[in-house]
Amino acid sequence: MKAILAAVDELQDELVTLLQRLIRIPTVNPPGEAYEEFVADLRAVLDGYGYATEVHRAPTELAPLGEGRPRPNLIGKLAGDGPLIDGVTAYQVMTNEHLTTGELVARMAAAGPRQARWRTERPLLRRMPTKNQNPDGTVETWRMGYVFEVILTRDTWMHRVDVAQATGRPLDLTPGHDGRIVADVVAEWARRHGKPFTLELTGPAGGSYTEGSGGVELTCDAVEFCRTLAGRVPGSGLLAQPVPF
Description:
Largest sheet: 3 strands, mixed
Number of domains: 3
Strand content: 15-25%
Number of strands: 7
């Protein structure tokens, strides 16, 4: 974090000049005037710094006060050695590493209910498409509802598994909670590879699953099955089919 602040101080004059340039564009909101001009100008700046940029336009119905004006969203990525999610995770670790365990738990306890309410109260946003880069570098288009309902649930669950693995603490698993998450993972895994199989997952979160006939027969621990599909451990055959977490 100190290195980032030092870099900001070093670039202070350049950053002030850029900010002055951008605020001269009259982006009045509502209704949302000059957004295209603003995005085009900032995109030129990022392109000049070597970023790979994309513009995605949100449906106008997501901005009822915008009077039908376009809602461009600029995404810029600076080329790196790994997937985008690794950079995001590293930044989150860096910005929160000074917090104690108690402070982290308190923040989550306060933010969780607010975020759950926020997600359920925005039906238009849930239908909005978004692009996601998978760990293997491929890009998929998802609906935000899928991100809210599925990915953020799986992601939190998988990190719980990661923490247990890292600290050597046992996982307290139940069929009603963990088994439901695992079953959802199995269903998406089956849709993605589209082949017949018989799958026996052991442990409290496990279950028996069959699709079609004459397919391969697999038996493994339910948590290890999910860790494999999430890319935590290598898989072969149908277990090489990744599922996003």
